[in-house]
Amino acid sequence: MLPLSIVILAKNEEQNIVRCLDSLQGLSDEILVIDSGSQDKTVEYAKSKGAKVIQIEWQGYSATKNAGNDLTVNNWILSLDADEELNAELRNAIRQVFNDTLTIHEAFSIQRKMVYCGNVLHHGSVANEFRLRLFNRKSGKWNSNKVHEDLEFTQSVSIKKLNGFLWHHSYSSETDHRQRLEKYAALSARQMHTSGKRATIIKLWFSPLFGFVKNYIFNAGFLDGIAGYQYAANEMWYVRRKYQLLKSLN
Questions:
Q1: Whole-prediction pTM value?
Q2: What is the residue range of 217's domain?
Q3: N or C: which end of the chain has fewer CB within 10 A?
Q4: pLDDT tens track for 166-179
């Protein structure tokens, strides 16, 4: 097994956790599922697959991830969400990484392919989506963003892209999409409010429309058919909603 710890955030993920864990077989002896109060069978399913489940009170995305990383045996971390699944090429690429001599001055970005309401989106804003997910905790930690958290490093790091990808089994329905976007909009609005940002007319009206045109037209989201339109339209709604909430806060 690799000198790698895999950390997975989870809450009520019984529909996803088994698929995620199955895709990790043969990579690590330490798979930590950081559970924040699941009321379904997430914990039961995770344990049945050999993962170690640790119950942590939800502290926000970044803080909860950092708390989980602090509990690992290994310094190298693969950070995942429960609705993600590694493909075979990515598993092989991760193994190859550990065949070489690694330093804390390296980190690795992974491509995601979105499965939206059962359809794979090949175009639009998610067509070329890479996320930093493989890193050494001695040099990297999650920043303080309330939403859309990212890694920050205490020293210079060379970021490399891995072959393969993660299937991102994102939203099971449009209703699921809207409900989660409402939560993300509220978090984004509070974050912008704390930073002193304002909800101008341009941000309220033109930013959502421009985002839709860029996603659906310029980035060819229309090639994904109805699913591409639904995704672009809901993301437009999200941008307007977060600025509406920011205006209320201001």
A1: 0.92
A2: 174-249
A3: N
A4: 999 999 999 999 99
